[in-house]
């Protein structure tokens, strides 16, 4: 049986019925990783022993008649900034090369408890800083649709693992678009939940007020299944929201009829690729035919999003990454005294993009500049949040492009940081506002590269977003396409 086109829901049901052994499936996934990873460079570490042990435990439970979890036997890929006990977690950085955490992230614990089979750690931009997966200290990841193109970032490896049919589900983190943008470029669904919906305990911090963990999948139903497992309050994360978690799969039905959808005029102007624009117009026709009503809304402070984001995010990165100093764990550089050792460690351990952002953030926080930069950025962030609050009083959901362009060629933007940063122009505002947003496939370019549309909703309206995405997917077939590998 060819497992690579099976959904997570199908796999779990077949395992429960005894039609599919979790161990057989796990071995098939390991074989596919061995076949594709040399070509696509998706995984930094594969947990063959751990995944097989987890699969055998699922089979044992089924044979014993025990209750199986909601993800029983389902293979899942993890981004390499999620802590996994006694298993490699590098954040794609030389400074953590070979490091094995002493504990699991909360989401990892919840996946294990649900019976998931965790296959290994996916490549990413170093410390989640990038939009192409080219900033990994080890190697870039190649797009399954065309290896000459990027997968997006920073969760590029996770997006590619789903796109390539290696695992039906993956987890990534999204600080300014790092789930949604690679999802769009790889032709899969990527979901950034509301800030606080999913525990960040065990997520290696980039920008703590922006980071959020979320799923990759091909379908809204699979994403809903994974969201139901990873969501919920965690006392170990002080920013985790004490809000009940709905049964996302049970709330998928409902369609688009009567839905009032906002189109922010600032998101459909200059800089949007013509093919992406055309795909969005076609998608809007599908929504309209299904009964949705469109209204124009305004997010007037959109033009300041990029500047505000790159001050808030870099300032928090400067603070968070200060812990990597060569003292307690990770790489230690050689130096004759303490400060020299600090300098050598960070010079050798961090890549160019991480150094750039640390320096920007340190400057923004320094005496004499704090009020002019970081404080001003926080004030702009408040205005951006107010823009969304006002817009969402006029509509149920907001519809925008996910990325201004399809995937670009490897190396094309590496020498132009500003152009690279503009890859996230449509996604960063959602993080600044703390809202949920997802990207769903909406078409392909003339060169066969996928494109995505973004759905944004009010805080903790994940069920509404998934319902809308599910209804759109019922009317289209973009999410059913697979790359030829």
What's the shape? globular
**How many DSSP helices?**
15
Query: What is the ordering of alpha helices and beta strands?
Result: HHEHEHEHEHEEHEHEHHHHEHHEEH
Could you give the order of strands across the largest sheet? Answer: 1-3-2-4-6-5-10-11-9-7-8
Alpha-carbon Rg, integer: 21 Å
The overall pLDDT, averaged over residues, is 96
The CATH topology of the domain at 3-257 and 436-480, please? Amidase signature (AS) enzymes
According to DSSP, the number of beta strands is 11
Helical amount among residues, as a percent range? 25-40%
- The CATH class of the domain at 3-257 and 436-480 turns out to be Alpha Beta
Low-pLDDT sequence parts: none
Strand percentage lies at 5-15%
Largest sheet: 11 strands, mixed
Instruction: Report how far apart the termini are.
Output: 17 Å
Structural class: alpha/beta
| Name given to the CATH homologous superfamily of the domain at 3-257 and 436-480 | Amidase signature (AS) domain
The CATH architecture term of the domain at 3-257 and 436-480 is Alpha-Beta Complex
Structure characteristics:
alpha/beta, globular, Amidase signature (AS) enzymes, 15 helices, 38% helix, 485 residues, single chain
Write structural notes for this entry.
By secondary structure, the protein is an alpha/beta fold. It has a domain at 3-257 and 436-480: Amidase signature (AS) domain (Amidase signature (AS) enzymes, Alpha-Beta Complex). The protein is built from 15 helices and eleven strands. The protein has an eleven-stranded mixed sheet with strand order 1-3-2-4-6-5-10-11-9-7-8, sandwiched between helices. α2 runs antiparallel to α3 and α7 runs antiparallel to α15 (462-475). It is globular and about 65 Å long. The two termini are 17 Å apart.
């Amino acid at each position: 049986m060819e497992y690579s086109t099976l959904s997570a829901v199908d796999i779990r049901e077949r395992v429960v019925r005894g039609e599919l052994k979790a161990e057989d499936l796990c071995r098939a996934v390991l074989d596919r990783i061995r076949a594709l990873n040399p070509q696509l460079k998706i995984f930094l570490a594969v947990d063959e022993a751990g995944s097989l042990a987890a699969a055998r435990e699922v089979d044992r439970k089924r044979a014993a008649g025990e209750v199986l979890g909601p993800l029983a036997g389902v293979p899942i890929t993890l981004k390499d900034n999620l802590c996994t006990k006694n298993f490699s977690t590098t954040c794609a950085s030389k400074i953590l090369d070979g490091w094995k955490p002493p504990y699991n992230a909360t989401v990892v614990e919840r996946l294990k408890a649900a019976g998931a089979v965790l296959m290994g750690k996916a490549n990413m931009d170093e410390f989640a800083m990038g939009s192409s997966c080219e900033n990994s200290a080890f190697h870039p990841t190649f797009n399954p649709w065309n290896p000459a193109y990027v997968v997006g970032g920073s969760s590029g490896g996770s997006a590619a693992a789903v796109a390539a049919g290696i695992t039906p589900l993956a987890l990534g983190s999204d600080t300014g678009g790092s789930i949604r943008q690679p999802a769009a470029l790889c032709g899969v669904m990527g979901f950034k939940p509301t800030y606080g919906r999913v525990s960040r305990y065990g997520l290696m911090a980039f920008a703590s007020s922006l980071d959020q963990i979320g799923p990759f999948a091909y379908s809204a139903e699979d994403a809903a299944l994974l969201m139901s497992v990873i969501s919920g309050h965690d006392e170990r994360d002080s920013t985790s929201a004490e809000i009940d978690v709905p049964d996302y799969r049970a709330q998928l039905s409902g369609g688009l009829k009567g839905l009032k959808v906002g189109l922010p005029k600032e998101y459909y102007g200059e800089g949007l690729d013509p093919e992406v624009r055309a795909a969005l117009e076609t998608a809007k026709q599908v929504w309209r035919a299904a009964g949705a009503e469109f209204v124009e809304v305004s997010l007037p402070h959109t033009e300041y999003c990029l500047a505000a984001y790159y001050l808030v995010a870099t300032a928090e990165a400067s603070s968070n990454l200060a812990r990597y100093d060569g003292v307690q764990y990770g790489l230690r550089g050689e130096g004759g005294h303490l400060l020299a050792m600090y300098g050598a460690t960070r010079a050798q351990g961090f890549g160019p993009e991480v150094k750039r952002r640390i320096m920007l953030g340190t400057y923004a926080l320094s005496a004499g500049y704090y009020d002019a930069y970081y404080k001003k950025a926080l004030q702009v962030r408040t205005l951006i949040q107010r823009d969304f609050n006002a817009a969402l009083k006029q509509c149920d959901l907001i519809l925008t492009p996910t990325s201004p362009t399809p995937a670009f060629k490897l190396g094309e933007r590496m020498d132009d940081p500003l152009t690279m940063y503009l890859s996230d122009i449509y996604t960063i505002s959602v993080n600044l506002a703390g809202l949920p947003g997802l990207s769903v496939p909406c078409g392909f370019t003339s060169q066969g590269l996928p494109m995505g549309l973004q759905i944004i909703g009010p805080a903790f309206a994940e069920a509404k977003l998934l319902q809308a995405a599910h209804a759109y997917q019922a009317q289209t077939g973009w999410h059913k396409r697979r790359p030829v590998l």
